[in-house]
Amino acid sequence: MTQRKILVLFAHPQFSRSVANARIAREARDLDGVTFIDLYAAYPRFEIDVDLEQERLKAHDLILFQHPLYWYSTPSIMKEWQDLVLEYGFAYGADGHALDGKYFLNAITTGGAEQAFTRRGYQHFHIRELLTPLEQTATLCRMHYLPPYVLYAAGHAVEENRLEPHAEGYRRLLIALRDNRLNIEAAMKVKTLNGHLDELIEGAY
Question: Phi first, then psi: what are they for 166, rounded to 5°?
């Protein structure tokens, strides 16, 4: 079966101070079949090369946004990227079919614990609900939106021995997506991919 080509667009405005995202990003940087782009490093002055980014999108089958959750959304450069790159006539609209049938998902870290992202938690919404604008963006661009892969309470992940298993899970997820071994139909029925990799990846260990 043909492998999928994965484009990871990474954004962290304080990468030098990052522990969790820096560790997780290492799993994507050197993986065969994965193109890893650090948007802040590529565009320190926010001068997005729209033509280049659109060509990257056309050359890949799956688009993944990796980022910390900033004010219930993406870091600012990722929003700038969306505003400029996902143009009418390219990504959506009557003649905008460049992204038809591609896949999209988020790999994110949060400051709050998982229980905070519930109706009774202090964030009041499930993480999937907070990502609704990105899900609708994917839908408008005729892409298939997959549930997010989330590291909750990232600031405590090292001391609680959660960072390494999460990073290893990220690598497993990327490989399964690349090699068409993730059960897409089943994946779309869960709210997040966390805790479901063994049941969703064919031949999981």
Answer: -70, -45
